[in-house]
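Hypothesis: this fold can be encoded by more than one sequence.
Test: take the structure tokens below, design a sequence, compare later.
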């Protein structure tokens, strides 16, 4: 049987929302066992169980902070990955956005699922306890999701003027990290566009030098011996490929706990490289939610992938034969499980 080649995209922080509550219901036994193991770790650390967080009513102050949001999203993504029918789909590469890089490491075989939990829990807690600054998200696209390069230049100039930083290149959006005083200026100066500029709640200035102090804390908490060569190629936040054959695990450890923490995360390049180097039949976006769906579509449009030119074309194509399969959308999930 011919398997379809797929690239997996792992979501980042902010993907677990009110709409995704109770995502971990009706789990198959092997996934449920993993959840029980994670819950035991949480109880030992005096933290709420992931299963309880998922069942309880969504509260931003509880569900969006690093030490809860990160492991909750991680568990949902592992659940989705394990549900994909591997007899029909051949996973040829894995990438992710921001925290999704840590999920990608676990799914790509660099670390075990248990070690992945430890990594994500440690980084989520460190950024919660020691994080500084914040993040703003702002669009640089027109109504048809094409990048407006004049607008992009304007935004980059404003970021430079207030000494803030590009945190993430996110399809048709730029995520800006900086000290709160810089972000406050940008919130006033950037032209209002629908609900943007929007400050992302409970986020520090991820992927900027402001989190420089977190890198040494992370490296003293996480041993490089837990890193192995990947079993599936990974594409990182620069668009670099880590292959099962040539990966230097020390370099991968240093990228993950240093470069990736303090330098911009180029999610757009990551997706673009995954598309061009691995030519998948489909891209599968893991849940929870579908917050990255638009950003991935904008990368497809920007690269004219499969001759895609606009938002309206993308929406039409998704109705007939979706290229992007989002497991956070129930009817699309059913295509791949």
């Amino acid at each position: 049987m011919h398997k379809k080649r797929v690239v997996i995209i792992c979501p980042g922080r902010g993907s677990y929302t009110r709409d995704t509550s109770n995502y971990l219901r009706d789990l198959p036994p092997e996934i449920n066992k993993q959840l029980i193991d994670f819950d035991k770790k949480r109880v030992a650390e005096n933290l709420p169980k992931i299963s309880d967080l998922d069942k309880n009513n969504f509260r931003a102050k509880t569900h969006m902070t690093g030490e809860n949001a990160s492991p909750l999203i991680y568990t949902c993504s592992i659940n989705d990955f394990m549900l994909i029918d591997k007899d029909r789909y051949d996973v040829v590469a894995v990438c992710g956005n921001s925290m999704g890089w840590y999920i990608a490491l676990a799914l790509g075989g660099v670390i075990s699922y248990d070690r992945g939990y430890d990594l994500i829990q440690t980084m989520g807690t460190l950024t919660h306890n020691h994080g500084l600054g914040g993040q703003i998200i702002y669009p640089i696209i027109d109504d048809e999701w094409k990048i407006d390069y004049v607008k992009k230049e304007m935004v980059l100039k404003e970021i430079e003027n207030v000494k803030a930083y590009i945190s993430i290149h996110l399809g048709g959006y730029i995520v800006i990290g900086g000290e709160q005083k810089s972000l406050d200026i940008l919130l006033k100066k950037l032209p209002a566009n629908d609900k943007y500029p929007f400050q992302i709640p409970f986020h520090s200035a991820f992927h900027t030098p402001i989190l420089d102090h977190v890198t040494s804390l992370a490296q003293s908490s996480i041993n490089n011996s837990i890193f192995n060569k990947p079993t599936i190629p990974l594409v990182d936040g620069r668009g670099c490929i880590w292959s099962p054959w040539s990966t230097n695990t020390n370099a991968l450890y240093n990228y993950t706990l240093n470069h990736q923490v303090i330098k911009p995360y180029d999610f757009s390049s990551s997706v673009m490289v995954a598309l061009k180097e691995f030519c998948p039949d489909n891209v599968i976006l893991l849940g929870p939610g579908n917050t990255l769906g638009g950003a991935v579509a904008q990368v497809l449009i920007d690269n004219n992938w499969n001759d895609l030119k606009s938002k309206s074309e993308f929406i039409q194509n998704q109705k007939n034969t979706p290229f992007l399969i989002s497991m956070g959308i129930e009817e699309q999930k059913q295509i791949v499980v």
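Residues 177 and 204 are 8 Å apart (CA to CA). The two ends are 16 Å apart (CA to CA).
Hypothesis status: open.
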